Amino acid sequence: MGALLYILFACVGAVVGSFLNVLVFRIPEGKSIVLPSSHCPKCGHAVRVYDNIPIISYLILRGKCRDCHEKISMQYPFVEALTALMSLLLFLKFGLSLKFLSSFIFTCALIVIAFIDFRHQIIPDVISLPGIPVFFGLAVIFMNLTVWESLLGILIGGGCLFAVAFVYEIITKREGMGGGDIKLLAMLGAFLGWKSLFFVLFASSLLGAVVGVAVMVIKGQDMKYAVPFGPFLSIAAVAYLFVGADVMKFLFFYY
Ligand SMILES: [Zn+2]
After folding, report:
1. Mean pLDDT for back-to-back runs of 10 residues, the chain (255 residues)
2. Rounded distance, CA 230 to CA 182, Å?
3. Alpha-carbon gap, residue 173 to 92, rounded angstroms
4. How far is the CA of 67 from the centre of ligand 1 (A)?
């Protein structure tokens, strides 16, 4: 019974991931997310129903369009597998509950944001701005956060990153963090509460620095190469869902 449930949650996650792919590709282009149905960007052929099975279709087609053999982006199976994994892990963490549902919606929003930021270096306002009140509501109603924890999360999240960006700009005379990161951090603060922001900012900066240095070494680019920050903020926020409370207990002896 347990194993069947795990498979079910992973499958639902993969199907949702397939929809997240559509969002990642269509939101930056301002296209409808419902119509037209999926089609090959090169030859325009509609994707057949039986070629639309998450992950499996990509493997059967060996990553190529059935009609014109154009390569299909690796992002499709990757996001589907990632969403399946997150669905499964969140189910293991929260069980079948509204906490699971809230956290899964939050994680899905972050997957879309992270991939759009990675591809286009923008964080779409269409997700982060409505995300602030939506995740405030979910956090207070389902995640046992107090109104103040969430509200302070929004204010400090929006405010402290704004301050960091402001100081960074004065010192380096270069725009570092975009306004999109600030709205995203306000959204994260809304769902995770203000106490999470220490962890989220520290972990994402550390991760960003490691990856940034690695990119500089491998690609030989200098510091001007802007690594988008949204994916690191997203990874840190999802990590906080799983280990945040324990880390905070360890660091500050409270909670
Ligand atoms: Zn094609």
Report:
1. 90 96 91 78 87 92 92 94 98 95 98 95 93 97 95 90 73 68 94 93 91 82 69 96 85 63
2. 10
3. 46
4. 5
CA–centroid distance, 70 to ligand 1, in Å, is: 5
Structure tokens given for 73? 């982006």
| 69 Cα–ligand 1 center, Å | 6
Distance 39 CA to ligand 1 centre (A): 8
Decide if 28 contacts 123 (C-beta within 8 A): no
Residue 156 is predicted with a pLDDT of 92
Helix (H, G, I), strand (E, B) or coil at 46: strand
> Under 8 Å CB-to-CB from 198, ≥6 apart: which residues?
248, 251
β-pair partners for 39:
46
Q: Which residue in 177, 182, 174 sits closest to 224, CA to CA?
A: 174
**One-letter amino acid identity for 222?**
D
Q: What is the pTM of this model?
A: 0.90
Ligand 1 centre from 48 Cα, in Å?
11
Q: What is the pLDDT of residue 124?
A: 92
DSSP 108-162: HHHHHHHHHHHHHS---HHHHHHHHHHHHHHHHHHS---HHHHHHHHHHHHHHHH
234: CB partners within 8 A, 6+ apart: 110, 111, 113, 114, 184
Does the CA dihedral 90-234-241-239 come out positive or negative? positive
Neighbours of 117 (CB within 10 A): 24
- The answer to whether 88 and 6 are in contact (CB under 8 A) is yes
Ligand 1 center from residue 42 Cα (angstroms): 5
